[in-house]
Design brief:
heterodimer, A: about 140 residues, alpha+beta, Thiol Ester Dehydrase, Chain A, 3 helices, elongated, B: alpha+beta, 5-stranded antiparallel beta sheet, about 20% helix
């Protein structure tokens, strides 16, 4: 592991560069194939609506993967992430158009831990609502 | 019908080995839209001290998601999969998954609890190489929505 960020260079409150991610139907289909999660609510609008969802929804794991990118791009080495957890609080509906939905991810250092580790708290929102709760990563810095 | 809490602690046999390939890691990285060279280029990965390309942090779901089917298919638990929602997910890593790993998953039901008419089943899926090295433990909480 070789994080690009030095533990001594961050403080509680230090912000990570935020990122914005488009989520389109094609992204969900591709994620179905790559992850093996073919649950119909991620690609079939008829079934999604029949179980009370507003539309096809993104996999929670897809949103979790997007949010992780804010941490791995910052740390420089994905192997520096030693713990990563989220709650799936709200779904991200994905309309049948070429634009899709937009997930915005912000993150900041929330605590400095022993062994040159930090806890990063993430905030992922769709249309102004939080879609991941208690999203936290522990990162081993240089 | 609520899920019997006495099943907390139940473990299932380890899954057959899953061999992690470079192409699968690249496919997964493409699917999450992440161009990071460490997921594709062995040279870039070695430059940071990894023996081969590494996988994104959420990649372990590729092995733990199918392993989780054992609890849905366990007739004694009686979980109705159409009522299952993914509530929480956490990964605790000893190291990143990397190309060349042959991984097995051992799933244990950590807890079963009820809240607001729903059952919440938390599983711990321990992912190890066939040599026995711990790679990551994935904790999943499935919410089984109550009827009505």
């Amino acid at each position: 592991m070789a994080a690009a960020i030095r533990y001594d260079d961050v403080e509680v409150g230090s912000a990570l560069p935020g990122q914005t991610f488009p989520v389109r139907r094609a992204d969900l289909v591709r994620y179905c194939g790559a992850s093996g999660d073919f649950n119909v609510i991620h690609w079939n609008e008829r079934v999604a609506r029949s179980v009370g969802l507003p539309d096809v929804i993104a996999h929670g794991m897809f949103t979790m993967a997007l949010a992780a990118r804010v941490v791995t791009d910052w740390a420089g080495d994905p192997g520096a992430v030693v713990d990563y957890g989220v709650r799936f609080t709200r779904p991200v509906p994905v309309p049948d158009d070429d634009v899709g939905s937009t997930v915005e991810v912000e993150a900041a250092v929330a605590a400095k831990l022993p062994d040159r580790r930090v806890r990063v708290d993430l905030k992922a929102t769709y249309a102004g609502t939080t879609v991941l709760g208690r999203a936290q990563a522990v990162v081993a810095l240089a | 019908m609520p899920i019997d809490r006495s099943y907390a602690g139940r473990s299932y046999p380890a899954t057959p080995p899953y061999e992690v390939g470079v192409a699968k890691i690249r496919e997964f990285a493409d699917a999450i839209g992440d161009p990071n060279p460490l997921y594709r280029d062995p040279g870039a990965a070695r430059a940071l001290g990894h023996p081969d390309v590494v996988a994104p942090p959420t990649f372990p779901i590729v092995v733990t998601y199918p392993a989780g089917h054992v609890i849905v298919e366990d007739p004694q638990l009686g979980i109705d999969y159409s009522r299952v929602v993914h509530g929480e997910q956490r990964f605790a890593y000893s190291r990143p998954v990397r190309a060349g790993d042959a991984l097995t998953v051992t799933l244990t039901i950590e807890s079963i609890r009820s809240a607001g008419g729903h059952d919440m089943v938390t599983t711990a899926s321990e992912v190890r190489t066939v040599e026995g090295e711990h790679v990551v433990t994935a904790y999943s909480t499935l919410v089984v929505r109550g009827e009505g």
